[in-house]
Amino acid sequence: MRPILMKGHERPLTFLRYNREGDLLFSCAKDHTPNVWFADNGERLGTYRGHNGAVWCCDVSRDSMRLITASADQTVKLWNVQDGVQLYSFNFDSPAKSVDFSVGDKLVVVTTDPFMGLPSTIQVKRIARDPNEQTTESVLTIKGPVGRINRAVWGPLNKTIISAGEDTVIRVWDTETGKLLKEADKEIGHQKTITSLSKSADGSHFLTGSSDKSAKLWDARTLTLLKTYVTERPVNACAISPLLDHVVIGGGQEAVHVTTTDRRAGKFEAKFFHKNLQEEIGGVKGHFGPINALAFNPDGRSFSSGGEDGYVRLHHFDPDYFSIRM
Amino acid sequence: MAEVISMADIEASAARLGIDLSSINLDSIQLPPGEDFGIQSGDDGDLYQDDPLEFEGGFGNIIVVDNLPVVPPEKFEKLEGVIRKIYSQIGTIREGGIWMPVSPDTQKTLGYCFIEYNTAQEAELAREKTNGYKLDKSHIFAVNVLDDFEKYMKVPEEWKASEIKPYMPGENLQQWLTDEKARDQFVIRAGSNTEVFWNDPRQLMPELVHQRQYWTESFVQWSPLGTYLATVHRQGAAVWGGASTFNRLMRFAHPQVRQIDFSPSEKYIITYSSHEPSNPRDSHRIVINIFDVRTGKLMRDFKGNVDEFATGGSGGVSGISWPVFRWGGGREDKYFARIGKNVIAVYETETFTLVDKKSMKVDNVVDFSWSPTDPILALFVPEQGGGNQPARVSLVQIPGKEELRQKNLFSVSDCKVYWQNNGEYLAVKVDRYTKTKKSTYTGFELFRIKERDIPIEVLELDNKNDKIIAFAWEPKGHRFAVIHGDGPRPDISFYSMRTSQNTGRVSKLMTLKSKQANALYWSPAGRYILLAGLKGFNGQLEFYNVDELETMATGEHFMATDIEWDPTGRYVATAVTSVHEMENGFHIWSFNGKLLYRISRDHFYQFLWRPRPPSLLTAEKEEEIAKNLKKYSKKYEAEDQDVSMQLNEQDRKKRKMLQDQWNEWVAKWKQWHEEERQFRIQLRDGEASDEEEEYEAKEVEVEEVLDVSEEIVADQD
Q1: pTM of structure
Q2: Contacts of residue B676 in chain A, CB cutoff 8 Å?
Q3: Are residues A157 and B683, on separate chains, in Cβ contact within 8 Å?
Q4: List of residues 6+ apart from A69 with CB closer than 8 A
């Protein structure tokens, strides 16, 4: 089916997130205003105004009531999804890069960038049921990884936090003590910055995308490398299909390296791989800049991609997609 | 190995000589360089034996001048002044770099001195220039580099017959040709790795033969018959080959070698280096060595100023065009030649001297080329005297140097010579000025070398103002292809040197209109041609059958920079090399345009098929095989079938294994997920389940009244 082009951002997209039911799509971009869209027809529902910097990441609570966003303006803001009212703002000393709600939505993990001599951190905040009782203290602060931590997510049962970033190493931390539990093998791991990390629907495994032009699939509990998907371009975004054994990875040549006028040169494609066989199934072209964000609808019947070009493209799969035989 | 001397032995011998050991600081003893008293140190012994090139002593910049006059102290300064004058002209002498020892008894000089230059090159130059210099009748300088002294000292006084080693049968250097599957090899260079592969089109992937990091310092090159792979290093070039793997067969010492070139039947290798001047008085020098490939013996060297080797003698730093020496005379490696100012110097390889002891004088010659099969030279002399003397293309037979054929050409701006690879035909592309001299148009002069008196035919294109973009002869054939046109989409024409009735006339076969192509690649077996649109056309490919005059397939290798047919004409490789930052890697196609497999590699520098020597079959036998191809091909078709079945089977097994493994993981995850269920519910404050069916979509219609107003509408009737 023809993709639905959603032009609501003025700057490159950074992140896309569906709510649990898959009827809403939240998009973040380098302009300061996250948007929410109807995931079915691409109609824009509203915006969340208040940030004063690029918005890097967001997450939505299980009941689709609360949205949390991380921004380069050194704040993480909590919003009421329904009316776009800002409920609370956590202030940090450096830009916030990623946020993720825990199971139960009572905790949130935030990563902050290294900034003005401060090291990067992973912080856990408690989210109060009533916004009026919300406090700003961190329950846990983890320091250690060098460079930006591009993503940190909760492991199974909130017992662990999985982090990945510029130092190419995937780490698993204990959420009680903040201790480092596991570290991915440098030899088999990524060779360049890990740009993205995306969990499977049940949280048992996750996919990482890296500038080394590959994406890797890991077991969330044991941190064993399961699969590797190799492409021709740096990977900026990746997602795991909740329905079929597919993964989608996207990226493209960095804009500064694109030397020809031909659009194909950059390979701004969302590529589908068979999760198990590691074979390329196909590609979805259309963006005219690198793909920065990818998300599957929880029903697995559509996906959306966000590009450096400022567009969100919403793709509903054709019927023959579901009958692909490998 | 030296005998081990114990401390007790040392003390004993010290006592014998009356030396007090405690008064000697053992650390202060310095052995003369190069002298180790037979004691080998364990860490460098191997290196010395293996790599003498790298560890030449450190006195390369010092020369020893012998046969100087012996003078008393009064005249010492005068002599030193004379020597300084002579030697400072050649290079920069280091401060205090002249040392003339005097006899302690007589205070007279000893008749020799040492001179230290800044660089080894200067020292070498000084040795070359002043060895044999006559100061006066009785004092003829004998100059040597200090490093060489050791070598000369080691020459034994008595001649000993050298040991004759028993004959050892060598490896079969052509083992690769006996591959059971008749596959071809290729070498690629990507990053710091150099790898040799079998091209295995049945498996749809290459099979690694040999791989090495830092195998070469700049590039690799196959010898023309594929026997050797040559690598280039700072100290010289090396050739590799062998039956099972790649061993180093020979090394050719040539510091800072830049270029190499094999003779057509790979008997000789020419190495070239150029040395930038180190000070303003120096000139840009180049060194060319010719080695025998098998023995490694230096057959001849050429050293000189860059101007002497520049093409056409025009001078200038960039005037060298490689190869400086071009090999001729077909497969026998008999002659090689270079162009100089008004001369063509032709050498023969029996003695490595000029043929007839003198160069061939050709006024104003600017270009020459050899016939690929015969000792025939084609020369081009441009117009002289503002058009009074016409331009000239002539064919000269070597060694007789007699002119076989000559053609004068008028108002010519440029000529380019194309030999057909069997040496049967020669095409000269002639760019002529129009009457106004403002623009040029192109025509061809076609020579039939093998016919009596070498007839020449003139060919002009249908539209003679068309620019010629590319020209190529069909290998072993009588056809050629031309890309011509001015627009963004040029035309491609095919011509034959025969017509159906008359074998002596050229005829046009076909013109393909407006193609996206700018390069022609004939299959080495002829008949098929790949029309390629490189650069501006982004790698468009068209596989064309010239026998049937039809397109077999079209394809694209985006951004392709290089195209090479395998030596048998069965496969084509298209590659994107590191001139582009992206897309680096190569594709392998079948001759009829089917993409077989793709390999991507970052920093991809080179792709080279290993050449094959010419077939040993006679022409009749080849024809017979072609006639009965059906009979022969049966066997191979069966083999293909087997392989593809096997592949399918393997593939199926692999998939099954992967699927089983995956299922195992999934089962494990499910189990975990189930076990953690209670905890999850707890975390969610008792919200019962993970199941997604809990929610239901309700469509709610909300009507909002925005505004109500009453208006009286006039009744219209």
Answers
A1: 0.70
A2: 156-157
A3: yes
A4: A28, A34, A48, A51, A55, A57, A58, A76, A77, A79, A99
